[in-house]
Write a structure and sequence with these properties.
The chain has 251 residues and is of the alpha+beta class. 33% of the residues lie in helices and 21% in strands. The strands form 3 sheets. Strands 1-2-7-8-9-10 form a 6-stranded mixed beta sheet. A 3-stranded antiparallel beta sheet has the order 4-6-5. Strands 3-11 form a two-stranded antiparallel ribbon. A hairpin with a 3-residue loop joins strand 5 and strand 6. Helix 3 packs across helix 9. The longest helix has 13 residues. The N and C termini lie far apart (54 Å).
Length: 251
Amino acid sequence: MNVPFANENDLCAVLEHRLDRLLGRSSSEQHAQTLRERSVGQVIPDLLYIRVDQPGQTDRIRGLSSIEASIVAILLAGKPLRLSAIARQLYSRAERVAPRLRLLEKRGILESVEGGAYCLRSDLNWWSVHVIAVEAKLRRWREALQQAVSYLTFANQAYLALPANVVDGNDDLVAAAETARVGVIAVGENDAALAREAPYQDARSADRVWLLSRIVGLPVPSRPSQASTAPQRISGTPAAIRVDDWSLYAG
């Protein structure tokens, strides 16, 4: 079967300019951006489409480390936890996790509650962030489907993008995508269309928290703490090789 693209980059170039129309903004109050081959943890989606409701403020908390993102993700369940419980879930020592908890508290993300436990600040001004990850392939759709499924740890939706003539009439592909809860995009030489819309899912992993802190920032509390929450410089080092962060898990 001939496909109209020389390689996957050519397919992505066509698709990238049509994501707003396919997946895009429902109102002028939303902002969207597309990222090519942005690493998230151990994976690299071909495209990330991130849609954000405008929060009405420009200051955001940026640049969490991997260990800090992991702490936030643990507390997203809503249950206050003590230092020892957090350290146990991180497979680390309490004395190594404690400084990060204090830093997150100073930055206005966490607060200490009765009994020495920690929880996320109840007055954090959270807004809606929608993350969509896309895996592109020219033919090997089964391999691409497995990769797309892995993106659901941090994305609200995952899509498999293939040439339109690979998608057309491919009942096995559509059935497998439905089972995997992944959407399908059929890409032509000059256009793209949804062959199957991906279902929405909630995602609360450490990789998602890390991604949002690096790309759009986390919301500043409506009642700022005394500590500064000014944005920090964002490191360009991929999450997978930030040894200084993950060294806290040793021991």
